[in-house]
Amino acid sequence: MSGSRRRFSSHLVLSQAAPFIGFLASMVVLVAIVIFMRESPVKAVEAVYKFALSNAARLGAVLSISIPYYLSGLSIAIAFRAGVFNIGNEGQYFVGGLTGALAGIYLPMPAPLHIPVVVIAAMLGGALWALVPAVLKAARGISEVITTIMFNNIGLALVNYLINGPLSGMAKGVSLEPQTRKILPTALFGKLNGFFRSLGWKVPDYVYLDYSLVVAIVMGAVIWFLLFRTRQGFEIRAVGTSTDVSRYAGIKVQRVQVGAFLMSGAIAGLIGLQEIFAIRGFYTYNIASGLGFDGIAISLIAQNHPVGVVFSSLLFGFLKQAGYGLQLSTKVPNSVTYAIQGLMILFIVAINAVVVRAVRSMRRKELG
Amino acid sequence: MDFLLYFLAKGLEISSPIAFAALGGVYSERAGVVNIALEGIMGVTALTLVWGAITFQSVWVGLLVAVLTGVLVSLIHAVVTITFRVDHVVSGVAINVFGIGLSRFLCQSFFGAETQSKINPFLFPKLLGVNSLAFWLIPAVLLAWFVLYKTVFGLRLRSVGENPEAADTLGVNVIAMRYAGVLISGALCGIASATLFADKWITGMVAGRGFIALAAVIFGRWDPLGAVLASLLFGYADTFRIIFESRIPIPSQFVQMFPYVLAVVVLAGIVGRSRAPAWDGKNYEKGED
């Protein structure tokens, strides 16, 4: 056992290399694009450094952007682990954000209670929006890939209707943006910037490092514990590895998948909290969209591991800031970062497939 | 009577982007490769169509450019899923993300703006008041039916989606057939985007049609005729919405979500009676490597 474990660990190192090689390969493509657009790569690197890394405010901004990315990646990761493709976390966070906001607007209560209540309300909303695709998958075997995409569109239209109609809180003539009423002050997310400054990190007040960071850390820890330290987590991972083997082992595959699906939806419900409760203070249809799809890439790069997602979401936060830097200082448009993100996933999964196969044949040789 | 004819023609025009993409989905999935990249591929081909038409002052050259770019982008999906044997949905999602970035980047390079192109004055001729390309759908579906069920190529294509091991044993080149299925789907995405709005490219203009097409493939039981009929259902439902929207006393957002609700209801209703090709979405490894 100990011998095979030692051999295994060298393979493990190799199999962890795919994200790094994939990242480097996509950066090479980015540099090629910069050169193709007749820009100096040095200037581009300077722009990226200045915009994303040069001081505490920039680094703080990267961390701030990474918070919703982390929650999105975590949401996808837990579903992927159970073999579920939750492409619907986009719609789930629009709905979850609204239910959270409603709890923040219409349920007056003292602050220490109110914030956990809005977090739970957002999780319930997100889980609710995952419920129908989850049940259709379990009961009728309908691919969740299609139903969740449909539910994204249904959810967005529904939310748009609600905030224009019954839940509209817009004072006439004040703003053209359809929105809810203002969230009660007891539910708003305060900032942790003062806390970070007391630790010696000089992050200025305008950067949003708010309670959603705490929410993200707590959720990450909970999911890690669930996946790797509980029986339910073991079942989730078993189902994700092989539904057939799990079924023979007596695991109720459908129940496990529905559970993971709903959990994924619940975490997705939290993606919008930072923007709604810390930045805006009300809910609108115009909260940042696309974060749900980003989560798929973020989770894949981290090989669906809650700790790995920390790094991949920081990477995406960095890429986003880098994109702004490139757009402002060079001719390279911001959209390049999307193309690079897509390429990065393709590189990583392809390299990973090659590595997995190489490791398998190496082990077969070792075993003789 | 005129109105009825207009409604029928308009419905065909609105259905055809979904239907051509769904036909592409049928070729690809019959060969065993799930292609959820249809959406992203159409986004790119819709742009290259406009670029080709303006640059070469002919919409037909634009169509050719769109078909070629469709083949090129789908080639990425083919390489990643068939050669590298990556999960098909993962690759499709990545190509959809990549496609958004690529089309915006190309738009910036070609037209100096990121979210919309210049107006393209070179359009397809009109027939019954709609884009005549939409009527190509009829020969296209007949051709697809003939190719899939009446030719050796079609038999081989279906066999690698149904049982690649057996096909391989009988000497069918599984890899080549799968590549063919995916590349044909890319070419059809090019035609699909040409039946959209050829006069201008705007970011997000495909607006979920590629995904609706996937639902149509399932609803149509992976059959070209069935997939096109399902696409017509979605397309005519949408046409009805567009024509009668102002007269229906319900909020427009409910009308907007109608095709998606319809898709979910239809899927929930028919699955169980609809069976995917046995090897759809699964990678094939020849022996052990």
Structure description:
Chain A is mainly alpha-helical. Chain A folds into 2 domains: 1-27 and 338-368; 83-288, no CATH class. Chain A contains 15 helices and no strands. Chain A has helices at 2-36, 41-52, 56-81, 89-106, 111-140, 144-164, 193-198, 211-229, 231-241, 243-248, 253-268, 273-280, 291-301, 306-329, 336-367. In chain A, helix 3 (56-81) packs across helix 13 and helix 8 (211-229) packs across helix 9. The longest helix of chain A has 35 residues, at 2-36. The model of chain A is unreliable at 1-6 (pLDDT under 50). By secondary structure, chain B is an all-alpha fold. Chain B has a domain at 11-206. In chain B, 69% of the residues lie in helices and 1% in strands. Chain B has 11 helices and 2 strands. Chain B has helices spanning 2-30, 38-56, 59-83, 88-111, 137-150, 152-162, 164-169, 174-194, 209-219, 224-244, 252-270, and strands at residues 126-127, 130-131. A two-stranded antiparallel ribbon of chain B has the order 1-2. In chain B, strand 1 (126-127) and strand 2 form a beta hairpin. In chain B, helix 2 (38-56) runs parallel beside helix 4, helix 5 crosses helix 6 (152-162) and helix 6 packs across helix 8. The longest helix of chain B has 29 residues, at 2-30. The radius of gyration of chain B is 19 Å and the shape is globular. The mean pLDDT of chain B is 90. Classes of the chains: A mainly alpha (368), B mainly alpha (289). Chains A and B meet through helix 5, helix 6, helix 13 and helix 15 of A and helix 3, helix 4, helix 9 and helix 11 of B.
What integer value in Å does the Rg of chain A equal?
Answer: 22 Å
**Number of E-state strands of chain A:** 0
Shape of chain B: globular
Count every beta strand of chain B, where a strand is a DSSP E run of 2 or more residues: 2
Q: Shape of chain A from CA axes? A: globular
Biggest sheet record of chain B: 2 strands, antiparallel
Instruction: Count up the helices of chain A.
Output: 15
